[in-house]
Amino acid sequence: MTFYPTDRLALFIDGSNLYAAVKTLNFDIDYKKLLEEFRKRGILVRAYYYTAIVEDQEYSPIRPLVDWLDYNGFTMVTKPVRRYTEASTGLTRTKGNMDIEIAVDMLEIAPSVDHIVLFSGDGDFRRLIDAVQRKGVRVTVVSTVKSQPPMVSDDLRRQADTFVDLQDLATLIGRPRQAPAPRYLQDADEDGTGGAHQD
Fold first, then answer.
1. Where is 48: in which H helix or E strand?
2. 107-112 CB contacts, 8 Å cutoff, 24+ apart
3. d(CA 25, CA 144)
């Protein structure tokens, strides 16, 4: 990763996407180490973490992580998971995509930073990165190609100024994987919201 000591940095963490990526690599993120690592690399202006939360559950496994991050230097951006029933199949699905929130915040902070680090492999962000780069901001994408299939879109990887594989950061910001998440958390739908945020 190319960073300069005077870089004003902002981190953008797509919670469900990052969780899905590290799960395939069999480690967990140590968020305290993650902040420490990027504070060494420049002036950390803001670290955003985005996740959708199921609000009608008596216990939400993501809630302790959200609370910890909120008290320990992260700016939390959350919204309720939406449930809907498909008319054609009668199946109940969940939706908790945070793409719009990430895009709005990234465009708003772009004039105040030199370098943005996006923890996501979602190809939908390619155009966003292009827009931010045209404002003079360098963008590093952190995801992985070392999973089957790769977790990062090729378009996103090409658009980024730098791509960093999560596997290469495992010793810096990771810790061994804890016990597997409950089964209902493992069944992420096409939006990747199925509890893919547990730390």
1. strand 43-53
2. 107/131, 107/132, 109/10, 109/45, 109/46, 110/135, 110/137, 111/135, 112/8, 112/10, 112/45
3. 9
CA–CA distances in Å: residue 77 to residues 14, 59, 102, 196: 10, 19, 9, 15
Rounded Cα distance between 45 and 61, Å, is 28
- Type of residue at 53: I
Q: What is the pTM of this model?
A: 0.83
**Fold designation for 15-186:** Rossmann fold (3.40.50)
Domain residue limits, the chain: 15-186
Return per-residue pLDDT of the chain as tens, 199 residues.
689 999 999 999 999 999 999 999 999 999 999 999 999 999 999 999 999 888 776 667 788 899 999 999 999 999 888 776 777 887 766 667 899 999 999 999 999 999 999 999 999 999 999 999 999 999 999 999 998 889 999 999 999 999 999 999 999 999 887 665 554 444 444 344 344 444 4
